[in-house]
Amino acid sequence: xxxxxxxxxxxxxxxxxxxxxxxxxxxxxxxxxxxxxxxxxxxxxxxxxxxxxxxxxxxxxxxxxxxxxxxxxxxxxxxxxxxxxxxxxxxxxxxxxxxxxxxxxxxxxxxxxxxxxxxxxxxxxxxxxxxxxxxxxxxxxxxxxxxxxxxxxxxxxxxxxxxxxxxxxxxxxxxxxxxxxxxxxxxxxxxxxxxxxxxxxxxxxxxxxxxxxxxxxxxxxxxxxxxxxxxxxxxxxxxxxxxxxxxxxxxxxxxxxxxxxxxxxxxxxxxxxxxxxxxxxxxxxxxxxxxxxxxxxxxxxxxxxxxxxxxxxxxxxxxxxxxxxxxxxxxxxxxxxxxxxxxxxxxxxxxxxxxxxxxxxxxxxxxxxxxxxxxxxxxxxxxxxxxxxxxxxxxxxxxxxx
Amino acid sequence: xxxxxxxxxxxxxxxxxxxxxxxxxxxxxxxxxxxxxxxxxxxxxxxxxxxxxxxxxxxxxxxxxxxxxxxxxxxxxxxxxxxxxxxxxxxxxxxxxxxxxxxxxxxxxxxxxxxxxxxxxxxxxxxxxxxxxxxxxxxxxxxxxxxxxxxxxxxxxxxxxxxxxxxxxxxxxxxxxxxxxxxxxxxxxxxxxxxxxxxxxxxxxxxxxxxxxxxxxxxxxxxxxxxxxxxxxxxxxxxxxxxxxxxxxxxxxxxxxxxxxxxxxxxxxxxxxxxxxxxxxxxxxxxxxxxxxxxxxxxxxxxxxxxxxxxxxxxxxxxxxxxxxxxxxxxxxxxxxxxxxxxxxxxxxxxxxxxxxxxxxxxxxxxxxxxxxxxxxxxxxxxxxxxxxxxxxxxxxxxxxxxxxxxxxxxxxxxxxxxxxxxxxxxxxxxxxxxxxxxxxxxxxxxxxxxxxxxxxxxxxxxxxxxxxxxxxxxxxxxxxxxxxxxxxxxxxxxxxxxxxxxxxxx
Lengths: 402, 507
What we know:
- The complex is a heterodimer.
- Chain A has helices at residues 2-24, 56-59, 66-71, 100-104, 123-132, 146-153, 191-200, 207-232, 241-254, 278-297, 368-380, 384-390, and strands at 44-50, 60-62, 83-84, 89-91, 108-115, 159-161, 258-263, 304-310, 330-335, 366-367.
- By secondary structure, chain A is an alpha/beta fold.
- In chain A, strand 3 and strand 4 (89-91) form a beta hairpin.
- In chain A, 53% of the residues are buried.
- The interface between A and B is medium-sized, with 35 and 32 residues.
- Chain B: This is DUF1800 domain-containing protein.
């Protein structure tokens, strides 16, 4: 492990030197493959974390479940509104123009009854559980998230977190840079200032981080400047996540191969709405974002896998406030140009009241570690030891999606 | 005196004019260990702190810090600013009454527009309240001469962490900080623990307001054992957690001014204090066994009894001492420091100022000086204290936002475990660049810190090339940093570089 870690660090250093040299040559534009770093894999993986536990029953609608319609008098998605996916399942209509075309092209699949065996139904407990990717029984090591362990296993593959602080998932020995794209619209420092700042950290333990952080912010700002000049004439965009996702797509197309982003606002205890309303708006914005990400990835989309997860699903029944409370099983999404999409994958069961877990919510039949473990095995050609390092104690399941 | 910027004489002149208090200490410098020690014990140095340190010496300064005098010594203008805040006059009960009134109006509102306006008014009430609590906290942190008490107030708020985003905690937190935490920050741990057990904010946050006989909610009991006192794996059992949960039944919150309807014989056992209520009807009066000791079911008195038991557990002394040592020393503290502190704890009945003294006067603490990576609170506050040196900040919003941006907002930790006390959580690449941006905002004077509430723009960038800088920092600046500083194009850029330097990230 230590050797491998050193190799990763050595590769990182080389990459940084190379990036530093590139950044100094200001005539190069950002789209001119400035960041086209050498790497030993071209596969891209993006994890999208929906924080707050989104209501999977509104996303993947069990259109033939009489119980679904009886327990959700106000918030169910009607069979006519739902977009047909299969005999039993429909898709939330807010995704009609964004993700439904991907379904038709077999570039998206859904895995219902997915999640973790963490049963606390606590946001933070379960988010931590998932991000750490360690067995839920036994001691937790909070310094080791599974994306960081994945980065350790695929040497020299640049990873990034599109967040203001480093999430638990990316915590660990590999230095994963982070940037919040929504407030990175100005170049924080000019080139001279960046050099002065970096020079103060020469030979300092934080030196590599500082340099990488500065380069990343400069690069992102240049990208956004291009964008504003090209399209928006300097106007501030109101498209929110769609713009951010487009930038993520570009960054992952050109430089990064592992990415993490989180999207909040899914904790819908009150007035979550049905085909329209708060949840529909959130899904609409998320769908547009993912479609924009796919589009911006260009040809790299064929080598990209995006997985959308959330800490848990919600109660099957609507509550007294036309919302839903914390539940258990969720629906995870898998997207990518080269995946075997257009299917509802994994273990499934009938959606009905007698089949509910604790008479409350969906059971988890597809453990996320098993599912991601199976996917990583294919994507990166992991042997069992490598997989064990990413997800200790896991038995991978092959959903045949990648 | 190395000339590291253009026009140093001008800057020096300005500094002399603006800091007359320093005249008595002309030429006095601090040794690097003294500087680092002073930075660690305070939220960062300003001229007044350095002057006091020169006057009293290390041990005199520490003794003064260990016996704070509260708001007495706050500068008059800061006292005024705090007195003008609504939270100074309002209690959780007042806030709840305002909420209910708005709710009532909303129900009866004629139009959807009115409904929305009233909904917004309710939301604003919560936001303004928590915003004021942040302002008050930061004003004291920046300007109180009792700096160690301020650091400990933050530490205990983090140890007994509550999250402003849950339920109505926004209106409960001002009182929580003021009544439960701050008065006991350097007092006895048992009193601090008892105060938190009777605080509406904590009882709501950890769901004990729902914990009643026959409908047990273990959440708070478990967190008391795991996070607040003994620490996980210290020898208590699941049985102890369950028994504690039974003891805690009936501790809750009541916003009604009328007493709850009780059986007459239970009436004398009712305890109320503001929004806090011990409701005997919800209490499990059976006898309990907790940590091997028998607790007779007698009502509210059980709380004081278990607080005393918990506060005197050797495991509590060690767990809490280790947290304090980790906070003040950053790296894993050596066991011998924790041993010393725990021993002091046992001798002094959990006197926190005695325990802190054992830590801050230890050899291991001295050896750790200069090596601790500042967390966002320490970084931003020390930058403001150095840069503006006593000039009172009018608008705290930028500082509040910086803490959000760096991932450590006040009352913003979702989980009851509090923010991490170690460096790795705060030094990611994105956070480092964010720090540089904050350094520039502070150094360039564009942050809006002196904007008046009526919107009038304040201005003026700080002169960091001041007397304080030359006396206490300049001798210890590294070659790398000095090189960068000499290349600064302007005073503003010089300020930005100094506040971004590695030296300024550590204390």
